[in-house]
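Title: Comparing notes on inverse folding

I've been comparing how different people in this forum approach sequence design from structure. To keep things fair, I'm posting one structure and asking everyone to reply with a full sequence. Here's the target:
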């Protein structure tokens, strides 16, 4: 890669980054083959700019937070005003934290009490810890294809290679085997597998954690009967049911997927769209479980975090919620999402490309596989042509359109996207798919088709 004086400034900055930041990026999920020189210099609404002077319409949306669009002016103003007025004290509580908690309790069916974290991973970590504290049990159940953050109990079986499905597939080395052994991995939407696991291990299952719509592999829409089974089996066994709504919360509905499906979990984890991009997560749920956290004197489940409830972040969340409640945000993103899904489906049919376009509301994904059935399990997704999936997204870049060029990743629409953006997405997708087909698919899929660093 060129780094001389004539090199584009993106390449020069990225090379400096690689000297001092391992891999040059601050998350393993930002290390994208083909995008190693991507340096972001500005964002606004539905767009972002790079150090090389390029502008993209953004359908990646930072993995999901900016539901209102990047640096929404009201959210940015609220965070800046709070920052000018009140610093972070790390003692006591602020009224903003109380207002935010009151709204989460009001909006989300399962939430009787709530605690703030800075990330979704912290929220899911605490959900599992408190489940073990409450039940005195060892095991947690997760589902193939779901991602719940980077901590050990759940760092396995997300985007697995076909030969890894059905056994433990850690996404990292350095996890104690005892910890991996304490996580049972089941197929999503498979009620029978859940019943079998409970028949065998129910007495030792502390928690079942699930993305009610597994969006970390695009979108696997849940069978209602599956979510109901999770509720029934956990209730019968005295296990804790955790809905990880870090993606679905606020994005699909102010009350989360639980208010859409009518199944109420014991605990809910939140993040991402709650503050339109400011770093906040939350864990909420049944008061008797939440009261086990050590924020209550003498309670057994230790809970802390220097930045929890930071005033600027809380102000961003309050401004985001205000806008989600007062403006037709969901109507807008659902309308555009439905349009994208319908028109992409028609496009692939016209091109004669086997594809299934799915998602929900503002989330969409094109899988390149025979339809028309919507995929419901990770096994179904093994039919997706990863070289076409990654390849057309790489070609979209030539059209100023950004969908993350990694296998199975979902795309997002925000309140800032317009019909004109959708028109351009459709035109660009047609050109990109034709171009990648003409080349016979993408090459160099290493690190673009599965997730994780573990070699096992
Ligand atoms: C469903 C889900 N849970 C938890 C997390 C972890 O959140 P964070 O990256 O904020 O730690 C993510 C992140 O992508 C997620 O998608």
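Reply #1:
Here's my take.
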């Amino acid at each position: 890669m060129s780094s001389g004086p004539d090199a584009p400034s993106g390449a020069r900055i990225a090379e400096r980054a690689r000297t001092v930041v391992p891999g040059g990026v601050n998350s393993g999920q930002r290390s994208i083959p083909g995008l190693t020189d991507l340096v972001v210099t500005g964002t606004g609404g539905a767009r972002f700019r790079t150090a090389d002077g390029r502008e993209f319409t953004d359908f990646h949306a930072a993995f999901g937070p900016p539901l209102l669009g990047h640096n929404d002016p009201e959210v940015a103003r609220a965070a800046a005003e709070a920052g000018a007025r009140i610093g972070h004290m790390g003692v006591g509580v602020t009224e903003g934290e109380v207002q935010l908690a009151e709204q989460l309790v009001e909006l989300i069916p399962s939430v009787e009490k709530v605690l703030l974290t800075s990330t979704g991973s912290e929220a899911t970590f605490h959900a599992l810890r408190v489940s073990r504290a409450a039940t005195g049990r060892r095991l947690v159940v997760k589902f193939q294809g779901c991602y719940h953050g980077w901590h050990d109990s759940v760092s396995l079986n997300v985007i697995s290679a076909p030969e890894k499905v059905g056994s433990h597939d850690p996404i990292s080395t350095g996890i104690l085997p005892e910890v991996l052994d304490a996580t049972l991995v089941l197929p999503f939407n498979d009620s029978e597998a859940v019943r079998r696991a409970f028949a065998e291990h129910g007495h030792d299952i502390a928690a079942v954690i699930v993305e009610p719509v597994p969006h970390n592999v695009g979108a696997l829409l849940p069978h209602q009967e599956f979510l109901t089974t999770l509720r029934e089996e956990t209730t019968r066994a005295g296990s804790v049911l955790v809905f990880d709504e870090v993606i679905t919360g606020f994005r699909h509905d102010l009350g989360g997927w639980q208010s859409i499906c009518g199944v109420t979990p014991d605990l809910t984890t939140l993040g991402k769209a709650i503050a339109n991009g400011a770093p906040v997560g939350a864990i909420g749920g049944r008061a008797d479980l939440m009261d086990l956290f050590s924020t209550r004197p003498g309670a057994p489940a230790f809970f802390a975090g220097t930045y929890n409830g930071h005033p600027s972040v809380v102000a961003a969340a309050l401004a985001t919620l205000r806008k989600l409640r007062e403006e037709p945000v969901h109507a807008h993103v659902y309308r555009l999402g439905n349009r994208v899904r319908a028109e992409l489906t028609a496009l692939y049919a016209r091109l004669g490309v086997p594809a299934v376009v799915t998602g929900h509301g503002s989330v969409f994904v094109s899988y390149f596989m025979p339809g028309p059935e919507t995929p419901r399990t990770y096994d179904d997704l093994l039919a997706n042509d990863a070289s076409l999936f990654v390849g057309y997204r790489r070609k979209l870049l030539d059209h100023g359109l950004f969908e993350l060029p990694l296998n199975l990743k979902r795309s997002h629409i925000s309140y800032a996207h317009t019909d004109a953006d959708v028109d351009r997405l459709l035109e660009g997708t047609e050109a990109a798919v034709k171009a990648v087909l003409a080349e016979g698919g993408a090459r160099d899929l290493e690190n673009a088709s599965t997730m994780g660093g573990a070699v096992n």
